[in-house]
Design a protein that fits this description.
With about 240 residues, the chain is α/β, with parallel strands linked by helices. It has helices spanning about 10-15, 15-30, 45-50, 50-65, 75-90, 95-105, 110-115, 135-140, 145-155, 175-180, 180-200, 210-220, 230-235; strands at about 1-5, 30-35, 70-75, 105-110, 130-135, 160, 200-205, 225-230. A four-stranded parallel beta sheet has the order 2-1-3-4, with helices on both faces. A four-stranded parallel beta sheet has the order 6-5-7-8, with helices on both faces. Helix 5 (about 75-90) runs antiparallel to helix 6 and helix 11 crosses helix 12.
Length: about 240
């Protein structure tokens, strides 16, 4: 396949190794990966804040940038949900509604693309560490992504996987962490307590924004647990 790689803002600015890891995995599987350089923000911050007219302007640009992509793979469950779930709502009863729906149908979050679209669970990775997993809210609730990353981790040589005691939000939520810092911090503390109780060396996720929140709080607790995107594990050998 010729895959259009959708790299969200957080990954572009702070975690570029995630995007490079996705490229390595997909090319190893024999696919051609293209990065449309004109891509910008998907519009989710404005959408979540209620500024739908502004969000629509940003999202419309994305419709044009990825118009020729056979499939689009996102490095984030959160931003993937914006394209797959919220864009059709954002463009409802507008002249670009059909384009939004078409792009939504062609867009996949990375782990879902591997498991659900390609039928791949073993990418030949090796990562000899104890790992737990954080389910980002948008990926879990909007895209139904839960078993896919676990199926992929189960095939990674050397991984000792352990679940957290309960699925919970990390407290980031994009603009939520800015608007409600005290609540965000409290939620993050609950999440980090669950992670530390697993005894894992690494906490993995499909969302770099969640991992940034979690790693920041772990660092303040002087914990040695490290955060890592699922793609980085799958690119390891």
């Amino acid at each position: 396949m010729r895959i259009g790689l959708f790299i969200p803002c957080f990954v572009d600015h702070y975690f570029p190794e995630v995007g490079m890891s996705i490229v390595r995995v997909l090319e190893k599987l024999g696919h051609t990966v293209e990065y449309p350089e004109g891509q910008t923000c998907c519009g989710q911050p404005a959408f979540n804040s209620g500024y739908w007219d502004d969000a629509r302007k940003i999202a419309e640009h994305m419709l044009d940038v990825f118009a020729q992509s056979e499939v689009v793979v996102s490095a984030s469950g959160s931003c993937g949900a914006m394209v797959k779930v919220f864009n059709p709502e954002l463009f409802h009863n507008t002249k670009r509604e059909a384009d939004a729906k078409a792009l939504a149908e062609r867009t996949w979050e990375f782990s879902s693309f591997l498991v659900d679209k390609l039928g791949v669970t073993d990418v030949g990775a090796s990562f000899p560490h104890k790992v737990t997993f954080h389910d980002g809210c948008h990926g879990l609730r909007e895209l139904g992504i839960q078993s896919q990353p676990r199926q992929l981790l189960a095939q990674v040589k050397g991984v000792e996987f352990v679940e957290v005691d309960a699925v919970s939000c990390c407290g980031f939520g994009g603009t939520f962490a800015v608007k409600f810092p005290a609540i965000s911090t409290a939620m993050g503390e609950v999440k980090c307590t669950s992670i530390l109780q697993t005894g894992a060396e690494y906490v993995a996720s499909n969302d770099s924004s969640c991992l940034m929140q979690i790693q920041g709080m772990l660092n303040r607790q002087t914990s040695k647990v490290k955060s890592i995107h699922l793609a980085e594990i799958l690119a390891s050998s």
